[in-house]
Amino acid sequence: MASMSKADIGRILARQGILIAFAVFIIGFTLANERFLSPDNVMGVIRSSAILGVMALGVTFVVISGNLDLSVGSMMSFSTIVVLDLHDKIGPALAIPAMFAMTLCLGAFIGFLVGYLKLNSLIVTLGMLSAIHGLTLTYSGGQNMDIVDKEGTWFGVFGQGSALGIPVPILIFVALAALLGIVLAKTPFGRKVYAVGGNGTAATFSGIKRARVVFLCYVMSAFCVATAGLIQASRSLGSQNTVGQGLELDVLAAVILGGASLLGGSGTIFKTVIGVLILGFIQNGLLLVGLQFYVQFVVTWVIIILAVWLDIAAKRGKLWSNIA
Amino acid sequence: MKSDKFLEELTMTLRTTLAATAAASALTVAGAAYADGHGPMRIGITQNNVGVDSYQTTYEKAFIAAAEANENVEVVVLDAGGDVARQIAQMEDLIQQEVDAIIIWPTNGEAVIPAVRKAHSAGIPVVVTNSNIAEAGFEFVATFSGPDNITQGSRSAEIMCDRFKALGIENEARVVQISGQPGYTTAIERQQGFDDRLPEVCPNVTLVETQPGDWNREKSQQVMEAFLVKYDDIDGVYAGDDNMGVGALNAALAADRAEGITFVGATNFAVGYEAMERGEYWGSIYQSPVDDAEAALQSAIDLINGEELPFLNYFDTPKITQDNMTEFTKPVF
């Protein structure tokens, strides 16, 4: 390590452009409001981001495998509503596995259509976005779901509990990120996901069962969505049936911001986590700065573009280039 | 390009399927008797999006029940499913059927104006219910029946101020506001009512900041978390509806700061009512979808009977606080 040359440091920095961008924003917001980095606030932001983050972990697999998943928002509404409804009917201990099973079925169905039937993932999941929303509305009869006895249940532990002073949603997010990070980076399955997304035809000729890999990516995405729905339901013990609406775009933004290519074949779990945190801290930072909210939409966009630009600039070693 | 085509087809298929479902569920509730030799009044309604939330679901049920209870009235109940194009088609259907009055819950305040004008030219009076259309269409509307959002905002300010006076902090209290979705009339009007009224009744109370919670509980919880970090001293929270108010309350409870804060909302939801029962949430504005539906039907009946109605025909949305909540039944939504 001691013999690390200047070039090595440059190369490492170049690979972490998004981290540099992240650091720049953190410093900027801290200068604007000294409470930005207070432990309470940082903890609060990460906890709020955990729901989005857990969903982004699954979508990272789907995107690296060269596909899209626009159904995660309405799927999250579905799991939230289902687990809240079943909680009062069959108790939390049965409601949670039942909800996971139902959500995994949805994921398997999408995986079957995209993986085995080779249908375009954009169309399949865009269709599922409305179809699952309809399913949720039908299931709930348009009503909001609320757990009746909010004091007498242990169900709140996933969203409101904490262990060793750390909120449980953060623990779940970190644990799942570590697990899926290892799966993606260190296992044969992870390498197959990159191979399928990088060059599907070549992957097939190398004996990789492409359909199966894609199928499993969607099942994993559904698993993450179910986990996010569990945290969401547990956090407020009640929910509107549109709770996840629009989240699919935030999730996708976080994944892309983390540097995964929409064309597939690249991205990492770690960078997705950074993408999620950037989005979360921007939202919180703008609130703390107290910008008027119409302006916030514009500023959020500017910051995201800046982050992407810094990332690319770091990769090519200069801020501007004639070629690509 | 190819996928664009696919998308279009897919959207069309989804729309057709939805339309078929809606058509099957369109109801005609016939009155049993004829009044004085005339046929029953025929009133058509095209609703915004039944089933998307409990308010609209309850509204439809109450509307049908009120119509069934009146033997002189026959109603055609339609639902646009949130789709402007379908709502315009439904308006045209109702004009074709030559109903005596049309009630519309606009899916979009601008886009439905031509259809409203068409009904107006056909001599059919149009009642706009719940949320008004854009001003350009006012001349074609017989009456607007719905809640007065500005009054709701001012009443929330009064509830807040009265509470501060009772607590003896009306000269130093600091308030934050969580408003509805930016750009929505309801959100803008409630905020305006609150912003204008608060300094009139409690001139020494400071409104320190307003941020949107987008009618969303989770979003409001995040906004409130940021407020709690930013301000050490918050005495009151006004939220544009109870869903957001409860989100803010949850944030304060998690931070152990709910005790000293007066929470006031609008559109009393069941969650808000329950939080009031627990003593954590102070007050709100009681807006009943049943009153909303009955007022719309009554307006249509009055118009057909040739009565003069004010253009803005508001139904009353009273104040509800922990003190008088027993006079109100718990909201069903």
Quick summary of this structure?
With 324 residues, chain A is an all-alpha fold.
Please outline the helices and strands.
The complex is a heterodimer of chains A (324) and B (333).
Chain A: H1 6-15, H2 17-32, H3 39-64, H4 72-90, H5 92-116, H6 121-140, E1 145-146, H7 157-160, E2 162-163, E3 166-167, H8 168-186, H9 188-198, H10 200-205, H11 210-236, E4 238-239, H12 247-257, H13 269-289, H14 293-316
Antiparallel strand pairs in A: 1-4, 2-3
Helix pairs in contact in A: 1-14, 2-13, 2-14, 3-8, 3-9, 3-11, 3-12, 3-13, 4-5, 4-6, 4-11, 5-11, 8-9, 9-11, 12-13, 13-14
Chain B: H1 2-25, E1 27-29, E2 41-47, H2 54-69, E3 73-79, H3 84-96, E4 101-104, H4 113-121, E5 126-129, E6 143-146, H5 149-167, E7 174-179, H6 185-201, E8 206-212, H7 217-230, E9 236-239, H8 242-254, E10 262-264, H9 270-277, E11 283-285, H10 289-304, E12 312-314, E13 319-321
Parallel strand pairs in B: 2-3, 2-4, 4-5, 5-6, 6-12, 7-8, 7-9, 9-10
Antiparallel strand pairs in B: 1-3, 11-13
Helix pairs in contact in B: 2-10, 3-4, 5-6, 7-8
